[in-house]
Amino acid sequence: MRRILVTGCNGQLGRAINKVYADAVKSGEVVLVNTDVGIEGVTSLDITDINEVESFVEAEKIDVIINCAAFTNVNAAESAWDAAYKVNAIGPRNLAIASTKYDVKLIHVSTDYVFDGTSDKPYTEFDAPAPLGAYGKTKYEGEQFVKQFSKRFMIIRTAWLYGDGKNFVKTMINAASDRDEVTVVGDQIGSPTSAMELARCIKALEPTENFGVFHGTCEGYCSWADFTEEFYRLAGITTKVKHITTDEYPTPAKRPAYSVLDNYMLRLTGSYTFADWKDAIAEYMNEQ
Known about the structure:
Helix 6 (134-149) links the parallel strand 5 and strand 6. The protein has helices spanning 12-20, 22-27, 50-59, 74-77, 81-101, 134-149, 168-175, 195-205, 224-235, 264-269, 277-286, and strands spanning 2-7, 30-36, 43-44, 64-67, 105-111, 153-158, 161-162, 181-185, 189-190, 193-194, 212-215, 222-223, 240-244. The chain has 288 residues and is of the alpha/beta class.
């Protein structure tokens, strides 16, 4: 029986992790130790507190840590650097230290925003990160800490995540309810990724010794506007999507114009093959 600590269990990925492990939990193969902060009825664990993390990992006899906790508000991170850094960098550092101290495997989730978006081809795991804003910078620092302090780690960079919870898909569907037209950025290109697909990838990697950095996104790519048009089509929504430029939609945080990730290491190691982004959003919409 493996005891798996899931941090940020109430987020989109944390919920998906619980779904994909449901059968393993039911059979007794796995025990999920779900934690979050400030969620009623959920065990609280502050990953930014090293003493709390070490005590918890030891007391709960954890075998594997899946770190889904993150400060994900990209715009807010620009004016809340300390808060973002504590969750996105210090938190992973603490988990990494504990993972080595108690010989625990660490799976840490990172982001496409560690890249600056100036590439003309998909980024592999071997391309040099160059984050543009506070969110990407703090997430990259988290990666560095994991590499520095953990001996048995998997870092999985993902992108444009959506799942059970607040997300871009639900926001845009709600926006269409009383509008004939919505405006969506059409010059930022990436790979919309289902939280369920990412959770399946994590479940495939978790029992292995296939350590290192991985890119984990749904196959294919599109713009935010293209993505919106596709899930509108699936939902039977006739609201028009007007493509606008990034300059026409200024935000506090600068975002990479092109952040398509190549799941190169997953292909080389045969670990997991993600669904195409269109198939994944179709599955998601069918379950709503």
